[in-house]
From TrEMBL:
Keywords tagged on the record: FAD, Flavoprotein, Metal-binding, Mitochondrion, Oxidoreductase, Transit peptide, Zinc
GO CC annotations on file: mitochondrion
Name of this protein: D-2-hydroxyglutarate dehydrogenase, mitochondrial
Cofactor(s) recorded in Swiss-Prot or TrEMBL: FAD
PANTHER family linked to this entry: D-2-HYDROXYGLUTARATE DEHYDROGENASE, MITOCHONDRIAL
Source organism, top-level taxon: Eukaryota
Residue runs in coiled coils: none
Annotated family: Belongs to the FAD-binding oxidoreductase/transferase type 4 family.
MF terms in GO: (R)-2-hydroxyglutarate dehydrogenase activity; D-lactate dehydrogenase (cytochrome) activity; FAD binding; metal ion binding
Cellular localisation: Mitochondrion
Enzyme class: oxidoreductase
Residue stretches making up the FAD-binding PCMH-type domain: 80-259
Amino acid sequence: MDIEDIQIYVETPDSPRLDPTKQMPSWILLITFMGTRKLSSNHVQYFKQLLGSESAVIDGVSKDASADLEAFNCDWLRKYRGHTKLVLRPKSTEEVSKIVKYCNDNMLAVVPQGGNTGLVGGSIPVFDEIIVSTARMNSIRSFDEMSGILVADAGCILEVVDQYLAGRSHIFPLDLGAKGSCHLGGNVSTNAGGLRLLRYGSLHGNVLGVEVVVPDGTIVDELSTLRKNNTGYDLKQLFIGAEGTIGIITGVSILCPQRPQAVNVAYLGLESFGKAQLAFREAKRHLSEILSAFELMDGISQELVERVAKKKPPLEGKHPFYCLIETSGSNKEHDDEKLEKYLEFVLSNDIISDGVLAQDETQVQSLWSWREGIPECLNHWGGVYKYDVSIPLPELYQLVDDTRERLSSAGLIGDDESLPVVGVVGYGHMGDSNLHLNVPTRRFDRDVEKELEPFVYEWIQKRNGSISAEHGLGIAKKPFIGYSRSRKMLDMMKDIKKLYDPNGIMNPYKYI
Ligand code: FAD
Ligand code: 2HG
Ligand code: ZN
């Protein structure tokens, strides 16, 4: 895309609102002008004194620190680039509070950043906003083995916490491919869904409390460890999925289930999406309480993983669709028997064409890698257009077929290096009716984008689906929220933002 193709629309409090449900070029950059100020060396001096240690401040204002700032200014998809000149890495909630208060008093814009694995550009500054990273706030505060309630700093890495819990026979109720880097605060702020939502439910149910620094610097300590508390509005829910727009989460309290003693994984080959739906229906019937994941991968997703990761596929032949089923329970014999009966049933009734069952932990991990490894493998070429949608199950895959048809008719897909699109791929959390439509490309390309948007969003709107099932809005989906939410809901969201962040310093230009 050329720079002159980018249309910048500056949204001020008085300007007419763009209607995202009307056809609008997606390369428009929507900027809400908040009137925040520019960073000076005096400001940096204040933060250095406040945080003391050298490693707590990456200062690109008084010197060239571009190499150190690079990882904070660029997202996982290599699609969004910020221009921050200052990264602050506080160690405590009190430090976060003082930073935020100072920023609010001085009208300095802030972007909270956890593991920077978000997929909608939410963790990257649009201009030179200050990044407040939670990386040094990484202590587990308490864990009660009786109730399974964990209280931890927002900067704890998900996988580290899960390992801690494994040593205490518990499991974190969220698991996702980015677990080695993402932070609990980022997980809660994006209301991440992940691979086992089917079993453990959403963070809206599992998070019991949050500690948050709101934009005026006040520390709101709502780190409840109660499962039940019906005393008034449940305000913590506002911060779950708020993507850093009304405060910085500094601590979370969360209910963690007992770790299952028996885990089985099966990887199935199927001839159609219709059969995948039957396999899912039968999985619920045969496996009911032990079913912990039901994931869908189409044939092309697995071919691309094979091509990029250069490994031998789990099944001999090629199949149009694959499903990964996981069971988690407390009695190996009982679970094995149930799963074997299920596999017998789906094979003998021609629902699946082939299947393999993991025999040990290494094979469990290996089968999961064919599902979890998809996003990384698709990132192998120039870039990926990503749509994370929720639509009723019967039509879930139709979106992939229709998108493929559209891009083929436009002559944009192929093995020829001159064509932009490598393929149109569908996979996701079938058990939650959540599809990931991914279009890996050799380069971000305006012709591809014109075919995809608003086509995909209109397709979803017609089916009353959601344009963002689990990844959030960030900057990528902000202009399109109107496809899934009514004007009234948008107005109420804007009222909340104005109420808690009247100066507009928290993660500006994004979300709503
Ligand atoms: P970041 O990327 O740093 O930030 C995400 C957003 O939250 C930003 O808007 C940021 O400003 C805000 N934020 C971060 N920390 C805080 C805080 N402490 N307080 C307030 N706001 C904060 N997502 C899913 O839902 N399901 C998946 O299965 C899934 N799989 C993934 C697999 C891969 C390989 C990758 C790269 C990403 C995946 N994601 C998935 C997306 C991403 O990992 C999640 O959204 C994750 O929860 C983000 O956590 P983070 O710490 O990296 O947050
Ligand atoms: C997953 O389920 C993640 O693997 C990432 O949500 C999906 O990259 C994507 O589109
Ligand atoms: Zn996902």
